[in-house]
Amino acid sequence: MSWPRSACSSRSACSPARCCSAREALGNGFRESGQILILNGVGGSLATTIKNVGLGDVLGQYFAANTAAPLLVVWVVAAVLHVAVGSVSISAITAAGILAPLAPVIGLEPVWIALAAGAGSLFAIHVTSNTFWLLQSLAGLTARGTLKTFSGGVSIASVVAILVILPLSAVLG
Fold first, then answer.
1. What is the model's pLDDT at position 46?
2. Is 109 exposed, middle or buried (0-12, 13-18, 19+ CB in 10 A)?
């Protein structure tokens, strides 16, 4: 088997085994993280589209009365996306990205939107969630045991978090 030496970064340390393992590791990394990177990019581009089209101004008129309504919307969107997609990070980033353009229009600090999105993305951890399987493997439980142990507790934490975030955002602005 002929090995192309130009594929390695260092000619003196070039070996087929070293290059193959690096190439395989890079390929595996992109295979595992590619979908997450693409979906995070889509969430960010959606936020930019909402901002550029002016939808933030239109929605801002509906939410201008108080800051609780947009935070609840962010929380619900993140929770629904988490159940549908199964990724905490994707649901939080996408939900925050959708309503982030509203923050300046209604005078809401973006940190409150990020906190509400993070709280909502933890709601209803179940078998389609990558967090579910992470918790199952770390705790050494069965799928049923993980559902009983973690799903309810994390969902309660999500609800408690939004119940704390709402009054804090009203007081601290």
1. 63
2. middle
**Contact assessment for residue 74 and residue 92, using Cβ atoms and an 8 Å cutoff:** no
- Nearest CA to 75 among 96, 103, 46? 96
**pLDDT score of 35:** 64
**Average pLDDT, 10 consecutive residues per value, the chain (173 residues):** 47 52 78 67 66 65 61 88 81 82 78 92 84 83 87 91 92 81
Give CA–CA dist 116/3, Å, rounded.
Answer: 53
Is residue 101 within 8 Å of 108, Cβ to Cβ? no
Residue 169: which residues within 8 A CB-CB, separation 6 or more? 67, 68, 71, 108, 109, 112
Q: Token digits for 98?
A: 């959708």
Residues in contact with 33: Cβ distance below 8 Å, sequence separation at least 6, in sequence order: none
